[in-house]
Structures are given as C-alpha cells and as structure tokens.
C-alpha cells in the first residue's frame, strides 16, 4: 500500500487514490479491488466493445452525464433522476428506462397481453374506421373494444361508447330495447302472473 493507510495505489494505472476509489472485493484480505474504479470501468468498456464487435452488433458510445442525471438508452435523452422510477436492485438505484419510455412500453405490452394486437394493428383498425368511433361516428376512437366471450377485437371506440357497451354488458337485446325506448316506443312489460312479465313483440 502506498500513500498511507487511508490511500492505496492502483495496480493498473499505478496512481494513488483514497480507499473509496476502490470497489469492494470480499475475496481479498483488505476487502478491496486491486484496480481503482476508473480502471475497472475502462477495462469493462473495452471488453464490452470487443464483445459487441465480435458479434457484429453496434457499440454504444459513452455519454457524459451531469450529476443527478441519467441517460435513457431507449430514447437517447439525458434526464434528471426525477424522470426515472426507483429500482432497488439496480447499481444506481434507478430503472433502466425513463418514465416516458416505460409508459410507452407499458401501453404496447397492454395491447398485446389483453387484445393480442400491436400498436400498428390498432392504428390500422382506427384508419379503417375513418378515424372515428364505430358507434357514434363522431368522437376520436381511443379504447379497443373486444368480445368478452371470444376475445375477438371488434373495433376502437370513444370513451363514452365503450363505457355504454360495458354498462349494457354487451347484451344486444338490452341495447335494442334501449334504442326503441330512446326512439319513443317504450317497451312496457305486461304482468301476466305474480313476478312474471311479458314483453311486447
């Protein structure tokens, strides 16, 4: 050890650093790595570069990131730590993708998991509807509608129409009676026995 008990020399670059410049290593007597953190990072970057080049894959270049910020590899933007979700198992305590990218991925995963379609397929469906809700033919379609029995996607509806179908529990007979009622032809059931009603034909 060189430079006193509170410092040591890196075996790679042979410079003296305080002890906190060395990562921990439980296999060594003093509990510290023999290379400083900077040398370990350089070696890891060079090894990563060689491995990527051998696989024929692109090499991500190192980006200078100011303190309190992190680079999102998905969108390529440097954002403050407030734009990241916490992740206790990560080395920096932050998620690998920023909140915005996680939200986009979350929507994609939801479409595929629940409806079995991609965002591209949903957008094609909206275009085939003329970019309006299938039911009211007015509002913007934002909610994928599907049959709860078969799982088949029927179309993309606006919020109100999607909620209305849900309230009617997807029952065509109830929806027909509601339409008749709205048109002014109320279906008034006739009591034919205690607790038994007959609907008009």
Automatic annotation (TrEMBL):
Q: Which UniProt keywords apply?
A: Endonuclease, Hydrolase, Nuclease
Q: Could you list the residue ranges that cross the membrane?
A: none
**Name of the molecule in the record:** Recombination endonuclease VII
Annotated Gene3D superfamilies: His-Me finger endonucleases
One of the entry's Gene Ontology molecular-function terms is:
endonuclease activity
Q: Which domain of life is it from?
A: Bacteria
Instruction: Identify the species of origin.
Output: Streptomyces phyllanthi
Query: What taxonomic ancestry is recorded?
Result: Bacteria, Bacillati, Actinomycetota, Actinomycetes, Kitasatosporales
The UniProt entry, under Pfam families, shows: Endonuclease_7 (PF02945)
Keyword Nuclease listed: yes
């Amino acid at each position: 050890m060189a430079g006193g008990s509170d410092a040591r020399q890196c075996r790679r670059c042979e410079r003296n650093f305080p002890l906190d410049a060395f990562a921990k290593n439980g296999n060594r007597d003093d509990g510290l790595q023999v290379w400083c953190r900077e040398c370990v990072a350089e070696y890891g970057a060079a090894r990563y570069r060689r491995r990527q080049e051998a696989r024929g894959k692109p090499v991500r270049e190192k980006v200078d990131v100011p303190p309190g910020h992190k680079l999102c590899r998905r969108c390529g933007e440097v954002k403050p730590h407030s734009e990241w979700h916490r992740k206790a198992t990560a080395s920096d305590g932050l998620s690998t993708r920023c909140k915005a990218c996680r939200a986009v991925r979350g929507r994609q995963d939801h479409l595929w998991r629940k409806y079995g379609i991609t965002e591209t397929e949903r957008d094609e469906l909206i275009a085939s509807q003329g970019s309006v809700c299938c039911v009211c033919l007015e509002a913007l379609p934002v909610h994928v509608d599907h049959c709860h029995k078969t799982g088949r996607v029927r179309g993309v509806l606006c919020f109100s129409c999607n909620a209305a179908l849900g309230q009617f529990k997807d029952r065509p007979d109830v929806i027909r009676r509601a339409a008749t009622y709205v048109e002014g032809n109320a279906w008034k059931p006739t009591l034919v026995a205690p607790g038994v009603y007959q609907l008009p034909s």
